Amino acid sequence: MLLFCIMGEPKLENWQIDSANKQKEYKRLLKTIHQAKTIKQLPQLHDEAFSKIDCLECAACCKNYSPRFKTTDIKRISKHLKLKESVFIDTYLNLDEDGDYVGKKQPCVFLGSDNYCSIYEVRPSDCRRFPYTDEDVLLKRPNITLKNSSFCPAVYFVLEKISDMQLR
Questions:
Q1: How many helices and strands in the chain, by DSSP H and E?
Q2: Where are the alpha helices (DSSP H) in the chain?
Q3: pTM score > 0.90 for this model?
Q4: What does the angle CA 72 – CA 73 – CA 74 come to, to the nearest 5 degrees?
Q5: Is residue 56 within 8 Å of residue 114, measured between CB atoms?
Q6: What is the rounded distance in angstroms from the CA atom of residue 155 to the CA atom of residue 117?
Q7: Neighbouring residues of 43: CB distance < 8 A, sequence distance ≥ 6
Q8: Counting C-beta atoms within 10 Å of the first and last residue's C-beta, which end of the chain has fewer, N or C?
Q9: 3-state secondary structure of 42
């Protein structure tokens, strides 16, 4: 395996290959980590990740996955688009197997060719919070974190930083 982390700084070239190779390691890390201590460090790690990563270069989340559209999201977005909620739901959403509203299509219909979101100011709360790298969700929902680390370089970056801190 190639070395992608030098002196605590994850390298972002080929991060997807590195992340795929480290899924078992990440799973073990998320099971054994001191959660309370790590949660306090997440905002700093999140800020560091996004000082190096530009979501507009990637947008893999918007291209391949849908957020949940909660009732408050549907109300807010429908109002913004000047649509009745029922019309918004019928036009853009489906119910998934968990009973959550999700987008009908990928990529997201609100994602432009420039990777900008046309409803950014009123986007769903899942989009606002993604990739959860500054929240306890990162540690408390390991299955989501592992999935996210496979397509989001920010999640990869934060996991690499946490892994490096564990080695010290």
A1: 10, 4
A2: 15-21, 23-32, 35-52, 60-64, 71-81, 85-92, 125-129, 137-140, 142-149, 153-167
A3: no
A4: 90
A5: yes
A6: 20
A7: 134
A8: C
A9: helix
Which tokens hold the place of 51? 């000082």
**The amino acid at 59:** A
Place of tokens 């972002």: 12
User: Residue 40 is which amino acid?
Assistant: K
pLDDT in tens, the chain (168 residues): 233 444 457 778 889 999 999 999 999 999 999 999 999 999 999 999 999 999 999 999 999 999 999 999 999 999 999 999 999 999 999 999 999 999 999 999 999 999 999 999 999 999 999 999 999 999 999 999 999 999 999 999 999 999 998 876
C-alpha gyration radius of the chain = 17
Residue with structure tokens 């990869």? 156
- Separation between Cα atoms, residue 33 and residue 55, nearest integer Å: 27
Find the helix or strand (DSSP H, E) in which 95 lies.
Answer: strand 93-95
CB 24 within 8 A of CB 150: no
List, as one string, the DSSP characters of 49-73: HHHH--GGGT-HHHHH---B--HHH
Cβ 49 vs Cβ 134: under 8 Å: no
- Residue 109 φ/ψ, nearest 5 degrees: -65, -20
The Cβ-side half-sphere exposure at 72, using a 13 Å CA radius, reads 4
